[in-house]
């Protein structure tokens, strides 16, 4: 057998850009660990990164990966296998025909911040250089375009001026619209280290919710949704009043301050408190810490960006740094956190509808001429391209005839899913280039093109601190999967034969390094000049920050240290922005503010993380978070179904009480799409997860949609009939069962299907309806769970008059019988203990008829184990609380004792913020006889 080997690469999840070491045995990835030499993470990985190798298992390859080109001969039919030659020729012919018949702007390309820089570059050149359309945009439009526009409006260039090392140097860290404890966990570990080393460092968190990041703060400004600009203007008002501004910096290095000064006069503490919901005392404290503590670093993300006034929010925060001189020095600056692993790379190559290579502006004739000369063309198109929301609206309206979608899942992630689904149905040609065959968008494709993914790709990415890292392949591509740049190159070459016959080739790229070298040359003399870099140098010196022009020994860690900004006159520009209401404010019909956000252990649409049951332990099912006061007002108990309605759609979700949201607000994770969550759609609507509700309104400057806030109304759903079914299977069977169950979701009024299990592979279906569904549907569910008539040894009970049905399958394991699958229909009261019996794989022979008794009292030993806190070691909250009751001393001492006993938080560290909250909330109990309860199966000893 081949010996294990290691390959240095980069994590494909968030914009922190952690280095990983991939371990392989032959052609199989067998492990992953953090790279101790990578300057982003120094060997640490979060719960998602540390399980990457599990998403590359043979079962995932077999059941979830797209492994050969697939063609759908007609809409609604199943795709059939094809080959690359047929796919390349057919796609090129059809794109050429559409471009000739309807013009190149009848084609739209929608790509992804998870592509590598080389992939992005080829796609961008294909659209703007070959096809002659600027209709190429990226899902980074959904996360970073407001940050781009905010930087350019104030500092003159799309360039975060700070770096990760500044976390350890800042005296105040100001987090606005971000939850790095969950969304950027390794960056949060670095912040925890900084606070431990410098106890005087202050942490201010601005967020409508009490997140794990907010819970760790010295000051939580729990603003009303959408009131960020009012807050920032109010803080500047206080800084002016108290004289806490840097008059010298303003006079020597900025312009436009007088207009902003006049603007913020109206934002008195009293008025700001009214607009934001933050007390005047907390406003004054925040202004003092920001302006006078020494060095202030701001971290911000989607809470500011995903807004119809996202650019203004970004600029208003940057105003505070310019006014106080908190920029261009160690430990200070406005630092936007990138959502995706290579959203920065996409911006660098101009892979958006309004950009060109190397941060050039499409609207600038000189910039267009420079790119045309680089590519050997007479010109590039000047007509502005359609951005993400505009592109799908144009396709829904019939203007765009072809959509080429690469490495992204708009049928889950885009707002206003009714419009998105109409676009996918109306387009004459839908090409989906993907690694995973299980995405919602894949169901709409005429052509499915298999792409490589993490562990197989070769190229570069750029993280949030402008640091370029190599992505290296550890194993060969499976099946017929090809690199994204190579797929685009081959189709481009086939198109060239039709659109540019006899002319010099534009896509003569034998390797990704050839692509990167052309991109590198495009940056010469630009703000992101990387002409001093090469693949060889990255291999020798490791990841490097830009700019790094030719002759430089290393990249630059911080920008604007000389006080000169990237504007024509070298002065930063204050942004005189108005405070605007939400795109969809609450009103009498829709009185609740619904916000969206990330989960700790999941990534985007979960095409990768969703293959692992262990990553569902912390947040096992889709829910809506509501304040207990609102739960009481709606007469809801935990788990009751809530109907959430916006102006675009309706969604049903179980309710969960939490004080992390304020009264009058609700929160749903962004990850839940119809690959997991479904039910019957209302007429004219689609049942497409959370984004069936969200609005397509977008910021006029950045064109980034307002995904974060939607006005909704809530009501208790009257669906008394319930079903829960679960099975414990091998990995391949579990993945296959989930895909089969997704097809059943629309046949119930509400349904969800999720994996579970830390040490095994479980699948759970939950459903609800007005009354018992037809027996054929229940029989279909039983058959999928291995409880069909052919299972002679299954235990069964049925009461058709009451709509009740229960089935159990047991398997022999030595001298014991263990539960393998169950279906509880009509009466699901036994779910908790029956599922515990299944999930913990405990002996079941002694429970006999209790398994079929609807209201049987669960044995004490099978009480639910409670919410999972530590994903790495499968430690639950009740276990933690029990141990903490016997831990005495300071908070730090109690945490250390807890970790010594259960080891939770000692692996990836993602659960440490929650552990600290539990330490603070759990009193020390009097010593009780006996010992600490032993962990359940799958937990650490």
Automatic annotation (TrEMBL):
Residues 4-60 form the 4Fe-4S Mo/W bis-MGD-type domain. Keywords: 4Fe-4S, Iron, Iron-sulfur, Metal-binding, Molybdenum, Nitrate assimilation, Oxidoreductase. InterPro entries: Asp_de-COase-like_dom_sf, BFD-like_2Fe2S-bd_dom, BFD-like_2Fe2S-bd_dom_sf, CT_Nitrate-R-NapA-like, MoPterin_dinucl-bd_dom, Mopterin_OxRdtase, Mopterin_OxRdtase_4Fe-4S_dom, Prok_molybdopt-oxidoreductase. It holds the Pfam family Molybdop_Fe4S4. Its cofactor is Mo-bis(molybdopterin guanine dinucleotide); [4Fe-4S] cluster. SUPFAM superfamilies: ADC-like, Formate dehydrogenase/DMSO reductase, domains 1-3. Belongs to the prokaryotic molybdopterin-containing oxidoreductase family. NasA/NapA/NarB subfamily. This is Molybdopterin-dependent oxidoreductase.
């Amino acid at each position: 057998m081949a010996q294990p080997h290691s390959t240095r690469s980069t994590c494909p999840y968030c914009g922190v850009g952690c280095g990983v070491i991939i371990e392989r045995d032959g052609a199989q990835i067998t492990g992953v660990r953090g790279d101790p030499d990578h300057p982003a993470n120094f060997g640490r990985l979060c719960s998602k990164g540390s399980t990457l190798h599990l998403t590359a298992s043979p079962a995932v390859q077999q059941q979830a990966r797209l492994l050969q080109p697939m063609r759908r001969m007609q809409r609604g039919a199943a795709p059939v296998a094809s080959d690359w030659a047929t796919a390349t020729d057919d796609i090129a012919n059809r794109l050429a025909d559409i471009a000739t018949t309807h013009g190149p702007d009848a084609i739209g390309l929608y790509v992804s911040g998870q592509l590598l820089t080389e992939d992005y570059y080829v796609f961008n050149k294909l659209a703007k250089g070959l096809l002659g359309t600027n209709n190429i945009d990226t899902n980074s439009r959904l996360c970073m375009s407001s940050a781009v526009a905010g930087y350019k409006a104030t500092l003159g260039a799309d360039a975060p001026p700070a770096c990760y090392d500044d976390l350890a140097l800042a005296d105040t860290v100001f987090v606005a619209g971000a939850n790095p404890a969950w969304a950027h966990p390794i960056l949060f570990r670095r912040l925890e280290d900084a606070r431990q080393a410098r106890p005087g460092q202050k942490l201010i968190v601005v967020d409508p919710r009490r997140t794990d990041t907010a819970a760790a703060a010295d000051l939580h400004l729990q603003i009303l949704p959408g009131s960020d600009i009012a807050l920032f203007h109010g803080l500047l008002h206080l800084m002016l009043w108290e004289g806490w501004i840097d008059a010298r910096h303003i006079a020597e290095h900025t312009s436009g301050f007088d207009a902003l000064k006049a603007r913020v006069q109206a934002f008195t503490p009293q008025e700001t408190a009214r607009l934001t919901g933050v007390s005047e005392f907390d406003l004054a404290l925040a202004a003092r810490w920001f302006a006078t503590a020494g060095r202030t670093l701001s971290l911000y993300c989607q809470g500011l960006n995903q807004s119809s006034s996202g650019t203004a929010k970004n600029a208003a925060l940057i105003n505070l740094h310019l006014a106080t001189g908190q920029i261009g020095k160690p430990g200070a600056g406005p630092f936007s956190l990138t959502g995706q692993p290579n959203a920065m790379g996409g911006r660098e190559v101009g892979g958006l509808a309004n950009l060109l290579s190397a941060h050039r502006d499409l609207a600038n004739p000189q910039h267009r001429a420079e790119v045309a000369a680089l590519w050997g063309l007479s010109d590039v198109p000047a007509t502005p391209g359609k951005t993400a929301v505009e592109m799908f609206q144009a396709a829904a309206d019939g203007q765009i005839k072809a959509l080429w979608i690469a490495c992204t899942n708009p049928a889950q992630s885009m707002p206003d899913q009714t419009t998105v689904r109409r676009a996918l149905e109306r387009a004459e040609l839908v090409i989906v280039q993907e690694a995973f065959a299980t995405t919602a968008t894949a169901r709409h494709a005429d052509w499915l093109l298999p792409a490589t993914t993490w562990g197989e790709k070769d190229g570069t990415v750029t993280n949030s601190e402008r640091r370029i890292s190599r992505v290296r392949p550890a194993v060969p591509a499976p099946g017929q999967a090809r690199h994204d740049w190579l797929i685009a190159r081959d189709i481009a070459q086939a198109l060239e034969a039709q659109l540019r016959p006899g002319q010099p080739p534009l896509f003569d790229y034998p390797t990704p390094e050839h692509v990167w070298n052309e991109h590198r040359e495009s940056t010469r003399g630009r703000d992101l000049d990387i002409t001093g870099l090469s693949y060889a140098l990255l291999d020798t010196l490791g990841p490097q920050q830009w700019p790094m022009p030719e002759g430089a020994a290393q990249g630059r860690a911080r920008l604007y240290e000389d006080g000169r900004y990237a504007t024509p006159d070298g002065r930063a520009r204050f942004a005189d922005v108005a405070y605007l209401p939400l795109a969809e404010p609450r009103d009498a019909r829709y009185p609740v503010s619904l916000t969206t956000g990330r989960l700790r252990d999941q990534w985007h649409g979960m095409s990768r993380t969703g293959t692992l049951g262990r990553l569902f332990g912390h947040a096992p099912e889709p829910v809506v978070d509501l304040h207990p006061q609102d739960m009481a007002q709606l007469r809801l108990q935990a788990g009751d179904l809530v109907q959430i309605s916006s102006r675009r759609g309706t969604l049903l979700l179980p309710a969960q009480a939490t004080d992390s949201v304020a009264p009058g607000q609700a929160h749903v994770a962004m990850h839940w799409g119809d690959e997991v969550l479904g039910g019957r759609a209302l007429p004219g609507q689609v049942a497409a997860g959370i984004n069936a509700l969200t609005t397509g309104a977008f910021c006029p400057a950045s064109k980034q949609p307002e995904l974060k806030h939607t006005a909704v109304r809530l009501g208790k759903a009257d669906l008394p009939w319930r079903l829960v079914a679960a099975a414990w299977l091998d990995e391949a069977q579990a993945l296959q069962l989930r895909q089969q169950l997704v097809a059943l979701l629309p046949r119930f009024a509400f349904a969800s299907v999720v994996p579970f299990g830390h040490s095994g592979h479980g699948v759970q279906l939950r459903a609800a309806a007005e009354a018992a569904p037809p027996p054929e549907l229940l029989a279909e569910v039983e058959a999928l769970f291995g409880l069909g008539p052919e299972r002679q040894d299954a235990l069964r009970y049925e009461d058709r008059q009451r709509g009740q049905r229960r089935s159990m399958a047991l398997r022999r394991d030595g001298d014991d019988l263990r539960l393998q699958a169950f279906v509880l229909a009509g009466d699901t009261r036994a779910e908790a203990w029956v599922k515990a019996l299944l999930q913990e794989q405990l002996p079941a022979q002694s429970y006999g008829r209790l398994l079929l008794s609807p209201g049987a009292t669960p044995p004490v030993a099978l009480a639910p184990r409670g919410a999972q806190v530590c994903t790495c070691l499968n430690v639950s909250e009740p276990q933690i609380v029990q141990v903490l009751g016997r831990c005495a001393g300071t908070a730090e001492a109690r945490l250390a004792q807890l970790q010594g006993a259960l080891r939770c938080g000692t692996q990836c560290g993602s659960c440490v913020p929650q552990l600290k909250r539990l330490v603070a909330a759990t009193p020390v109990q009097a010593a009780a006889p006996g010992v600490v309860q032993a962990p359940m199966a799958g937990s650490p000893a």
